[in-house]
């Protein structure tokens, strides 16, 4: 409780304020569901999906080999989505050899931070061509 007193031209006014605690409990982000390492082929369509909770709602960032993946407008083969309140998805519409890397998702809020990392292993296209001897 705070008492504020103001005096102006021989008139005194008192204000009493009460400051309530924030009823919302802060909780560090935590994974409800993580993604794991994947072995895929060139041309596959894949999704790295995780489920994260926390209070306040965490900010989520994706990384490839430690470098942040930014949303790109225009033509691209990787997309970042948030589905509902807790699902976060990194989608590869067409996997290439350049996508072979370590991928991480980091969730942060005022109460803390969590990270999930996995390796995406991309195998080259296989040819059905067989050499006849």
Automatic annotation (TrEMBL):
The keyword Cytoplasm applies. InterPro entries: Ig-like_dom (IPR007110), Ig-like_dom_sf (IPR036179), Ig-like_fold (IPR013783), Ig_I-set (IPR013098), Ig_sub (IPR003599), Ig_sub2 (IPR003598). GO terms for cellular component: cytoplasm. Keywords: Cytoplasm, Immunoglobulin domain. The keyword Cytoplasm applies. Residues 29-123 form the Ig-like domain. It holds the Pfam family I-set. It is found in: Cytoplasm. This is Ig-like domain-containing protein. It comes from Capitella teleta (Polychaete worm). The lineage of its organism: Eukaryota, Metazoa, Spiralia, Lophotrochozoa, Annelida.
């Amino acid at each position: 409780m705070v008492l504020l007193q103001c005096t102006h031209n021989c008139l005194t006014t008192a204000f009493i304020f009460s400051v309530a605690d924030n009823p919302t409990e802060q909780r560090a982000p935590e994974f409800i569901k993580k993604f794991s390492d994947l072995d895929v082929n060139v041309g596959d369509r894949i999704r790295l999906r995780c489920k994260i909770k926390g209070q306040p709602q965490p900010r989520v960032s994706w990384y490839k080999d430690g470098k942040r993946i930014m949303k790109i407008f225009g033509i691209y083969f990787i997309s970042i989505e948030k589905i509902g309140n807790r699902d976060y998805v990194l989608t590869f519409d067409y996997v290439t050899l350049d996508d072979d890397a370590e991928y991480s998702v980091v969730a942060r809020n005022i109460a803390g931070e969590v990270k999930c990392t996995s390796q995406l292993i991309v195998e080259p296209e296989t040819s059905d061509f067989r050499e006849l001897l």
